[in-house]
Every structure is written in C-alpha cells, then in structure tokens.
C-alpha cells in the first residue's frame, strides 16, 4: 500500500547539544488514494515535524523530518509508526520504522542481567563468564565500580567481598565484545547476593551509565567425613582386636563429601614417613596396618568405600638369633604384640586433616605334635598298621588345622578346629601297595599354612609280597568294607637295633655290590642316576602322593614308545647312508660319473649356464619382520606367537565389543577389589591421555575411543567418570570388567550446544581404588552456512538485470549453500525482522537441510513489482546457528508505463464456430522499454492473443491481435490482464456474444428426374439465415460423383455464355462473378480439406485449391457462407464483403439472410441416385440423445411406438415435436404441437413407414418447450434379416435446426 524510505533510522556518534535531523519519505505505491498518519516516537528527545492525516494520491509521497536534541546523551531505541488505510478498508495497516541513537562514546551492555552461581563451596573460588558488548562508537575500558548489597547499600570495605571481577580492567573495542570473569569466594554460609556495578572510563561529562549485573550464590560447607558403614556414626578409630600372625581382617569405612564440588583425598602416615627417613628399619606397625584406597576423588555430595586392613606381620628373620631348642615355637612367648598407627586424611580442596587410629594385637601361633616321627616297620603288601598322634594348641586363640595325605599313608581326621589350649587325636594308617622302603612327610598346617606349618615324618617298609584280596559280592554290606583299627605302640614297630653282621653276610653283600657295579659299567649308569635322584626327592609331597609300582628302574609306556621310534629312525638313517657309500664305491670302480649320466658329457661349463629356466618365476613370499613388540594388528605373526602387543591407542576407531559393566562371579568380585601395586598398575595401560575431538560444530555428536590394555593375569574394573560432565553424559559404558590380557574400549561421546573452547579433566578409577585423570579437548564452532558461486567464490551480494528484448517477467541466478561444519544445518530463507511489505526476491528451495561438509544448489528469482524496492536483503536463518545475509540489487531499474490505446475490445455478436479478429494497440509512454505478458488464466475460452508477451521500446507502440473462436453459444464479458514488468497492470475489457445461426433449406425436395448420361441438370438450392450473424455451412459431396454446387448467378451466366457460344454471338457478360477459391469471404468456396476449428479457425486449415483427388476419389468439400438477416446498411457496416457476395448472388437487390445456389448433376453411369444433401452447420455439436427408440416395420407396413412424457417443471407448457432436417422422411411423430402436461404427461406416437430395402435408418426426434428440450434417437429396422438393397429414400425435410446444446437442461 505504502512504502517508507529509509526503512530504518540510525544516528551514530551523537554528541550533546547538537541537533540532528533525519528525513523520512512515505510513498503511496497502490492505485488508490490512501490516508497516511505518522505516529511520533515516545521519547521526548525526538520530535517529528509533518502533516497529520494526509490523503495521498497514487504515486505521491509525504515527507517528514525527525529531530534529535539532548543535553545528556544516552543510547536510545525507539520507533516510528506509519498508519495507512483506504476509505473502503477497515483497520489500517501499520509500518514500524526502528529508531536507533548511539552516542559518541563507549556504551557497554552485558549479555545477561543476572548470574546465578548455584551452590558453591565455602571459601573455594568459583568462576563464571560475563560477556560484555560495546554498542558505542568508541572503545571503552571496563572496571569494577562498587558492590551493592541486597538493600542497595554499598558493601562494607573491611571484610572480604564475596564477589570480584577478573581482570580488574578490561578493554572492549567499538562494536566488539569481550569476556570477563566473575569470581565467587564467599566465606559466610548461606545465601550471598549483591549487585555488581561496572564503571566505564570516559572523560566526557555526560557519559552513559554503565550496566549492573545481579550476582547470587548459595554457600555451603565443604568438608570430608569418615563414617562407619554399618551405623553411619562418625569414625576416628578402628580396633581389630587379637589376630594370629599371617591372617588378615578388614573393616569397611565410608568417606563422605558434604560439599558441592569434587575433592581429592589421601591417607598419610606421618610417623612412618619420619621413621623411614631417619632409621630405615622395619616398622611392624606400618607393615601390619594399612588402608585401601590410599587416595581418590570424591564427587559432589558423593561417598567412597574405604577398607581398613589388619595383617599382623613380623620382621623377617626375627628369630635368627635363637639357636637349637630356643628356636622352636614352644619357646616363643604367648603374649601378643600391640600394633597401632595414626593416619591422617588430608584434602587440598578443603584443607582438612582428619585423624584415624588403627589398632590391633598380633598373636604368635603355638601348635605342636606329640610325636614328630612315626616308624611302622615292615608291613606285608596290602596289609596295614595304625598309629595314634596328639595335636595340641597352646595359644590363647582358636585355630583351624589341616593335614596332608601322602601316598601309602592315610590320616584321620584330616582337618578340624582346636580351641584355645585344646587337644585332638589323629590316627595314622600305613598300607603299602608296593615293595621296598617307603617314606613320606605329612604337613600339619594352621589356617591352611597361613599361620604355621609342622612336618610329621612317616617311615615304613614292605618286604613280603602278597596278592590283593578284593572285597565284594552280592551279599556284601557297607560294614564289610570297613577295616578295624590295628594300633601298635611306638616300641614294637620301631626300627631294630643295629648289630654287626656275620662274615658270610658281608661276603654276600660285597658280591651283590660287585654285580651292581658291573651293571653300571654295562650301560645302567643313567638308570642308577635316575634312581638316586628319585630317592633324593623322596621327601617331596607331590612324589609321595603317586602310587609308584616300581623304584624308577623301568620306563613308562610313553617313554618306551618314544625310545623305540627314535631307534627306528636312527637305524633307517644308518642303512641309507651305508647304501649311498656302497653305490659311490661301485661307481668309482667302474669309472662312470653319476653326474654325466644325468646331464650328459661334461664340457667344462656350469650346468644350465646362460639359459633361462624353462619354468615361470614365482615370487617368493615375504614374511613380515618378526618383532618382539609388533606394530601389526591382531592376527599377525607376532600376535599369534603369543607376544603381547604394545599399547598403541587409536582414538578414532571405536571398539566393537564391550565387556560387562559390573563383576558377577565371586572370583571377579574378589579380583576387582584387590589393590594393585606400582608394577601391576604399569601393566594396565590407559590412553590416550588427551582425547582431542578437534573442531566440531555445535550439536554435533562425536565419539572417541578411550582404550584400556590390561597385561595382568586377573580381571580389573575400570570406571570412567565421564557422565559428570553435561557434554559427555552420553558416553558409554560407564565401567567395564576387563578380563586378563584383554583390551577394552570406552566410547567417549561429546556433544555441546554452545560455541566454545572446551577443555575438561575426566577421572577414571581402577578397581575403585586407583584414580587417574585424562584431558578432553574440543573446539566447538557455531553452525554456519556459506554462500558461494559455482566456482566456490564467496558471495555477499547479487546483481540482477534483464537483457535487451527479454520479455520475461522474472530472472534468476544460481548459487550454492555450503556447510563446512560437522552437523546438518537446517535453514530457512526470510527477510529482516523490521521488514514489512513485499519482496521482489524469492529463493528456491526456501528451506531445507544441508548435510555436513555438503553443498546445496539454490536459485534466487527476481520478479520486479511496482511498490517493491529493487534493493533488498535476504536472510538465511540457520536453526541454532548463525544467520547469513545476501544483498540483492537491480541497478538501473525504471518504472515502465504501458497503456492500451483502445480502452475496450468489442466483438459484438458473432457466430459460433466462426473466427473473428480485432486488433488493439499498446503504447509505451515511459522512458525505458516495457516488457509485458498476458495472463493466460484471464483469457476466456476460445479467445487467443498474438503475441502473448513482448517488449515495447520507449515511445513506441505494438499491435496485439485478438482472435475469437467460440464453439458454443455464450455471452462473454471479461477483462484481459497483462503483467507489466515493474509497472502497473494493463487491463483490456472484452465483450462479445456468440450465437448459433438459424439456417433453413427452402426447398423440401430436389428431384432431378431423368438425366441423360453426358448431359447435366441443375436444381436451385436456397438457404435462409434468420439470425443476425453470418452462418458457415459445410457440404461434402466427395461421396457423390457428378454433383457440383455453384452460385445460381454463376450457373445462369455460364448457361447464357453457352447459348451465345452455340449461336456464335460474341457478347461480354459483366457484373457476374464465379466461385472465387482464393477469396476467403466468397459465399461459396471449394476447398480440399476442412480446417480444424480447434486448431486455429476457419481460415487456417485447408487451401482453396479446388477439388483434389485422394485415393482416386474426387474431394469436393464446399464452404458456404450465408449472410445475416440484416438490412443492406447494417450488413455493409458489419461484414461488407459477405453482403456484397449476397448481392451478387441475388443478381440484383439482395434479400437479407438468403443465399441462392445451384446444384448441378452430370451422371457418369446409368442408375438411380438417392441421398440426403449433406449440409452441416459449422460449430454445431451432435446432440446427445435422451434415449433410443427402435421400431421394426416391414415394407409398406407402417409400425408405431408410443411413450408418455411429463414436463419436469411440473407445469403445463406448449411444445413442438419434430424430426431434425437430417432425419429420413420415413419417420413421423404425433402430435406435432400441443400442451405438455406437468402432472399426467402427454403420449407421443412415433411411426416408421419403410418403402424399400436397405440399411437401418436413424433419425433425431426433438420435443421442445420454452424451458426444456428432449432429444431421442429413433432407429428403423426390418423384422427379417434379408440382404439390404441400396435404395435410399428421397430427401425429406432438410430444415436445419438451431445448433445449440441439445441436452435436457432446465433454464
């Protein structure tokens, strides 16, 4: 409606005391008058000078001035409102013009009004960023002015302020921004709040006020506490009581962090560190009492489980000074040793040092046997003897004991528990299964050997072999397998006393020794050494458990098989070598060289020298270099050989397999709670220590792999504390149980929605005890789309122009939207926020998604419209990202002024199916070419323009042809619109009325009578047009050879000329014209082809070249134009040439609406010819029949069919019933006229009277009233199926009815 220029008012570098004036122009761009009112701004420093409520004519503009004057310059943002409305419209349209005033100084604005620190620790500094923007025109230095309390009073200077600004002074460039830091270090508990007022260094007297920021925080106490896991009470000491040396006891303690921030903790033993530094001696207190984990990280308001361990330990070789009987356990004192350590739990963040005292008492175990050696003597094979031994616990604590079971000996019971100062009896049974001297050592272990271990020496012999008697049978009971004890005392079964042997016994032993020596010299030295080795290891428990059936002089079956196979291989090798030596010896004796037999006579050359090998060369496979620490992937040669791969961390490849998050089996739970030593921690490699996500776009989800390579033989539990950071909360899994010698991978997922430089420290804990840290870094950039051309050059603006002679209403340019980030960018093209009105520029597609690192082609279309400024900025808004602006300009664009010379296109009344043409002129009154294009949707059906678009030069005119070809009766009143490029629309009113001509054939019958072959006969044909428009009738005589149509005057002139020629009289006949084939307006034309009316009118089809021959048949198609029923003056004014033709055809004064023709017949053969004259009105459509009436009648025997018809309007109406002119005369209807009843209806009778054989006849019955028309198709057939005879009836009533629509339509 209106356009405001400029669309935005800005004043920069404003100073006090100076008056500034801005001009505003409001222009009426509509085609109607509108009332414009400018609402002044609200600020008192801005004054508007303009007329109020101005009535603007189209194209005029209203100018106003806005003045600014003030003594104190402050940044000002206001607006100017323009109201525009038409008289006929309701609510006015509003246009807002923003006003922005910026002083000539530094104007600092804060990005946020308040900063909430949330919960902070008491005394611990917490920092929050504060973004400062300088919207002024000069740089400024920002510093802290003062801190205001909750009541607005300045805070006291004596105490430490809870908040401070870092750095103390910060410079912000003009139009730029900077980030300061606000630190909160409140010392008092509770809620801390204040207002931070900033100061901007400015020498000006009236400098704008600096901003203020509200600060608030909740200060909580940050402390560490040690509590009992069961009761939850505070804990300062842990007492373990009395415990044997070698055993272990554990107590669970809970460390609680009561503060809002994470803290590190560590347990220290100051006394142990000082003693170790001074003396370097063994400390039993520090070695017996410990705590795990010794250090760690506690999350905010989190807890950690800590175990206190008591493992009494004595100094190594503590009893080395005691010798002989003094070194036995019985001589050691029973009194326990009191052990205690003082630990301190220290934290750097809280500055605490909590004391924790661990105490316990170590007790020396005193377990003894009544006998240390049991001698059973000789026992027959498979027999047994029993001995009894007593166990005594001389300690003050209960003790669990167990006994080992050596071979050939059994001890019952094998385990039990002894109370303090208690005893137990054990039965030892000796049952030998082999011959010889049998020895064994049974081990008495306290608490499985952890506390003490005593040997019990057992000796027995078996010299009498026996066969083993097996118990069993169907009648054997379980009691039959029990063997009763057979106790013997220590004296009866001891080894007999030694006495000197007799002389003959010594001689026999010497002989046996000599024999044994001879066996050794014969090759039995290896077996003797093995036997001696077995005897030397007879005290080993593992060998005692084996039921050996020999003394080691015989080999096992596997050893014998290996020895036999080795002998066979060696024997084969010796035999083959002997054969080769004998063959070589025989060859030397005969003088034949084996090489000559294989390669022929030797010529002194190397075999095959200088020749290529007759087989293809095969590339020798190259095995990879075998390294002790290979760099290859799993599956390489080094990995398959069992070598452990070095810890090479690949953060870009995610591990496909993840292990379980928590230990499940008892063994895994035990292993995942064990503390690891320094060497074991070195075997667990974790990395990389710095996860670099690189440069990513905001909202991009990126994952990196954090690997844990375990070289231990036990499972470890690794937990990554990545979920504590919001940007890493989707990392998975939180923990994994890493199996022995396995590699686990953690998917550290990063996603940040704000541009920043990200750097955080993430902790990971091994076995819940050992805490380590890694660094996560990323550079997050905002989502942004770049505009480039096809060659990749950045674009900031586009210029549009139209070429000479270009009639297009719009033009377009292509560009590419490029996404250089790592996240899909969803964009939408729009306009600036303060833009109101229409824009001549549009982008396709206007919205979409650009994939990461992808490109999307765009098309910017410029369609200049009057009222739209040719310079406009398009804004590409990116969801959650930065917007991109594209400036579009069209320099040199001038308003086009195009108008029609004739204001109306009037066709008047025309005939349907007949083409009419009018010409209108478009004139360009402007100073630039005017491009136009007609809107196709504004053209009525049947109306066509040529040209549809074009360019009119400045000051020139252009003719536009308007063609009308209407196919149905209609009255058309329409307005044809033409769009003018950057100009007002052109409107052409169009009016016409298309009617169907009413043409009648005045002759009812055309009877030539007998005609002699070779001669010709003529019959007059008269056509009457009762309508006010010319009628075009088509007559196709191609199927009727010998018949020809001519104008009656032409036929009379030719007859007169023939008579004169016969009389040999030379006379010139003037005033008579024949049929003019080359004249489009001639009343009778002979053409070769009927033109297609839908393709371009009556004159655009065939050529008037007379009759033609197609396939041997003469093409005789006549176009007959019947003049309208008008007076001579009116006819001459409407269609002069057609009326003139009618006058010539009449031979004198023409009869209005009548055309006289002559039908000539020149037979070529003998016969009877009957047919209906094929006259067809141009533009008439075939009527659609309501129903089909079929009548069967014999020759000369009429038949009739009756039906009843009611008036659809339910009222009586006069009617007329008749058959159309092209219907055979054999059909008749009665009554032909009357009143059609609307209640009971009227009965009609249709009669069919055939008088000759032939094909079935068809006719159209019309029943017409003022409101409704009914059309029926009547078919006449014969009752019997005899071959038809070609004898058509004579032509009947050839009246042509109106050619309108024959459907039953209620008007």
Automatic annotation (TrEMBL):
This protein's GO CC annotations: cilium
Organism whose genome encodes this protein: Emiliania huxleyi (strain CCMP1516)
Segments forming domain HYDIN/VesB/CFA65-like Ig-like: 800-880
Protein name (Swiss-Prot/TrEMBL): HYDIN/VesB/CFA65-like Ig-like domain-containing protein
Residue segments, region Disordered: 481-500, 1091-1110, 1282-1307
Keywords: Cell projection, Cilium, Cytoplasm
Location within or outside the cell: Cell projection, Cilium; Cytoplasm
Lineage: Eukaryota, Haptista, Haptophyta, Prymnesiophyceae, Isochrysidales
Keyword check for Hydrolase: no
Compositional bias annotation for Pro residues: 1282-1291
A Pfam family the protein falls into: HYDIN_VesB_CFA65-like_Ig
A single BP term in Gene Ontology: cilium assembly
């Amino acid at each position: 409606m209106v356009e405001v220029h400029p669309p935005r008012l800005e004043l920069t570098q404003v100073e006090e005391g100076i008056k500034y004036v801005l001009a505003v122009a409001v222009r009426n761009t509509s085609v109607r008058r509108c009332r414009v009112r400018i609402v002044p701004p609200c600020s008192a420093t801005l004054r508007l000078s303009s007329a109020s409520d101005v009535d603007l004519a189209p194209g005029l503009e209203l100018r106003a001035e806005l003045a600014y004057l003030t003594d104190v310059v402050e940044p000002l943002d206001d607006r100017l409102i323009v109201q525009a409305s038409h008289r006929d419209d309701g609510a006015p349209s509003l246009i807002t013009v923003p006003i922005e005033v910026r002083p000539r100084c530094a104007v600092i604005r804060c990005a946020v009004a308040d900063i909430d620190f949330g919960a902070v620790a008491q005394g611990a500094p917490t920092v929050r960023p504060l973004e400062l923007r300088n919207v002024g025109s000069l740089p400024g230095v920002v510093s802290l002015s003062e801190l205001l309390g909750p009541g607005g009073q300045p805070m006291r200077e004596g105490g430490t302020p809870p908040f401070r600004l870092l750095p103390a002074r910060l410079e912000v460039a003009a139009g730029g921004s900077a980030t300061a830091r606000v630190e909160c270090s409140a010392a008092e508990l509770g809620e801390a709040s204040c207002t931070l007022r900033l100061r901007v260094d400015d020498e000006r007297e009236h400098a704008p006020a600096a901003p203020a920021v509200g600060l608030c925080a909740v200060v909580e106490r940050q402390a560490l506490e040690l509590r009992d896991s069961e009761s939850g009470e505070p804990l300062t000491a842990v007492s373990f009581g009395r415990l044997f040396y070698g055993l272990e006891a554990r107590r669970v303690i809970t460390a609680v962090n009561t503060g809002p921030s994470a803290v590190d903790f560590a347990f220290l033993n100051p006394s142990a560190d000082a003693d170790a530094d001074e003396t370097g001696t063994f400390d039993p207190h520090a070695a017996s009492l410990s705590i795990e984990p010794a250090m760690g990280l506690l999350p905010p308001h989190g807890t950690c489980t800590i175990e206190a361990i008591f493992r009494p330990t004595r100094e190594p070789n503590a009893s080395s000074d005691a010798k002989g009987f003094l070194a036995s356990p019985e001589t050691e004192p029973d009194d326990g040793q009191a052990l205690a350590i003082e630990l301190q739990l220290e934290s750097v963040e809280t500055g605490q040092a909590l004391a924790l005292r661990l105490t316990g008492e170590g007790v020396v175990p005193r377990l003894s046997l009544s006998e240390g050696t049991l001698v059973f003597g000789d026992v027959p094979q498979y027999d047994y003897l029993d001995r009894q031994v007593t166990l005594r616990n001389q300690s003050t604590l209960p003790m669990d004991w167990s006994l080992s079971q050596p071979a050939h000996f059994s001890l019952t019971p094998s385990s039990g528990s002894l109370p303090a100062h208690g005893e137990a009896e054990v039965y030892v049974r000796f049952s030998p299964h082999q011959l010889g001297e049998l020895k064994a050592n049974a081990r008495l272990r306290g608490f499985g050997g952890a506390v003490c271990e005593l040997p019990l020496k057992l000796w027995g012999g078996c010299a009498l072999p026996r066969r083993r008697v097996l118990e069993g049978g169907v009648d054997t009971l379980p009691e039959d397998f029990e063997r009763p004890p057979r106790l013997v005392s220590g004296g009866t079964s001891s080894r007999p006393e030694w006495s000197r042997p007799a002389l003959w016994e010594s001689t026999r032993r010497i002989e046996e020794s000599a024999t044994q020596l001879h066996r050794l010299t014969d090759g039995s030295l290896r077996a003797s050494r093995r036997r001696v080795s077995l005897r030397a290891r007879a005290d080993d428990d593992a060998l005692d458990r084996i039921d050996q059936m020999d003394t080691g002089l015989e080999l096992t079956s596997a050893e014998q098989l290996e020895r036999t196979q080795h002998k066979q291989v060696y024997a084969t090798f010796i035999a083959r070598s002997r054969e080769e030596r004998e063959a070589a010896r025989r060859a030397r004796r005969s003088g034949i060289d084996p090489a000559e037999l294989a390669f022929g006579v030797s010529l002194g050359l190397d075999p095959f020298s200088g020749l290529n090998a007759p087989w293809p060369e095969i590339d020798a496979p190259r095995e990879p270099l075998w390294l002790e620490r290979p760099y290859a992937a799993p599956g390489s040669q080094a990995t398959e050989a069992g070598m452990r791969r070095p810890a090479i961390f690949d953060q870009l490849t995610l591990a496909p397999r993840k292990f379980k998050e928590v230990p499940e089996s008892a063994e895994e739970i035990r292993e995942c709670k064990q503390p690891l030593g320094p060497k074991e921690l070195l075997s667990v490699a974790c990395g990389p220590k710095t996860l670099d996500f690189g440069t990513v776009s905001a909202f991009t989800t990126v994952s990196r792999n954090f690997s844990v390579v375990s070289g231990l033989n036990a499972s470890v539990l690794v937990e990554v504390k990545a979920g504590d950071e919001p940007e890493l909360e989707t990392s998975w899994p939180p923990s994994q149980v890493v199996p022995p010698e396995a590699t686990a991978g953690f998917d550290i997922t990063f996603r940040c929605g704000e541009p920043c430089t990200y750097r955080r420290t993430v902790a990971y804990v091994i076995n819940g005890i050992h805490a380590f840290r890694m660094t996560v870094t990323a550079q997050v950039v905002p989502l942004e789309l770049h505009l480039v051309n096809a060659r990749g050059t950045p674009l900031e603006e586009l210029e549009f122009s139209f070429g000479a002679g270009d009639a297009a209403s719009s033009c377009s340019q292509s560009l590419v939207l490029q996404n250089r980030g790592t996240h899909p960018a969803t964009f939408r093209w729009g306009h600036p926020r303060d833009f109101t009105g229409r824009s001549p520029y549009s982008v396709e597609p206007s919205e979409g998604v650009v994939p990461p690192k992808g490109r999307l082609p765009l098309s910017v279309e410029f369609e200049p419209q009057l009222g739209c400024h040719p310079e406009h900025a398009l804004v590409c808004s990116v969801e959650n990202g930065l917007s991109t602006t594209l400036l579009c300009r069209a320099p040199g664009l001038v308003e086009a002024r195009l108008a029609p010379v004739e204001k109306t296109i009037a066709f008047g009344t025309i005939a349907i199916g007949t083409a009419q043409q009018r010409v209108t002129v478009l004139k360009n009154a402007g100073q630039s070419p005017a491009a136009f294009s007609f809107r196709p949707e504004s053209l009525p059906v049947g109306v066509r323009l040529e040209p549809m678009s074009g360019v009119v030069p400045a000051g020139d005119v252009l003719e536009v042809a308007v063609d009308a070809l209407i196919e149905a009766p209609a009255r058309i009143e329409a307005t044809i619109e033409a769009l003018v490029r950057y100009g007002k629309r052109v409107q052409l009113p169009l009016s016409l009325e298309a009617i169907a001509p009413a043409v009648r054939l005045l002759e009812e019958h055309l009877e030539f009578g007998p005609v002699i072959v070779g001669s010709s006969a003529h019959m007059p044909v008269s056509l009457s047009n009762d309508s006010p428009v010319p009628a075009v009738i088509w007559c196709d005589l191609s199927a009727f050879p010998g018949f020809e149509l001519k104008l009656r005057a032409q036929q009379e002139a030719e007859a007169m000329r023939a008579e004169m020629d016969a009389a040999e009289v030379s006379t010139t006949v003037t005033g008579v014209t024949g049929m003019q084939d080359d004249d489009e307006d001639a009343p009778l034309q002979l053409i070769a082809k009927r033109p297609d009316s839908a393709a371009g009118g009556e004159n655009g089809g065939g050529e008037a070249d007379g009759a033609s021959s197609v396939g041997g048949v003469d093409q005789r198609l006549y176009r007959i134009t019947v003049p309208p029923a008008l007076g001579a003056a009116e006819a001459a004014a409407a269609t002069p040439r057609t009326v003139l033709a009618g006058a010539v055809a009449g031979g004198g004064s023409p009869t209005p609406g009548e055309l006289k023709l002559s039908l000539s017949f020149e037979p070529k053969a003998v016969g009877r010819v009957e047919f209906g004259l094929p006259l067809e009105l141009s533009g008439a459509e075939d009527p659609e029949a309501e129903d089909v009436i079929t009548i069967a009648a014999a020759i000369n025997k009429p038949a009739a069919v009756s039906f009843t018809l009611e008036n659809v309007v339910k009222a009586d109406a006069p009617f007329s019933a008749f058959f159309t002119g092209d219907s055979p005369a054999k059909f008749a209807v009665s009554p032909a006229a009357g009143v059609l009843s609307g209640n009971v209806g009227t009965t009609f009778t249709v009669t069919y009277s055939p008088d000759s054989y032939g094909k079935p006849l068809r006719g159209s019955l019309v029943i017409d009233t003022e409101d409704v028309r009914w059309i029926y198709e009547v078919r006449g057939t014969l009752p019997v199926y005899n071959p038809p005879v070609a004898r058509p009836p004579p032509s009947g009533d050839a009246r042509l009815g109106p050619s309108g629509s024959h459907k039953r339509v209620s008007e």
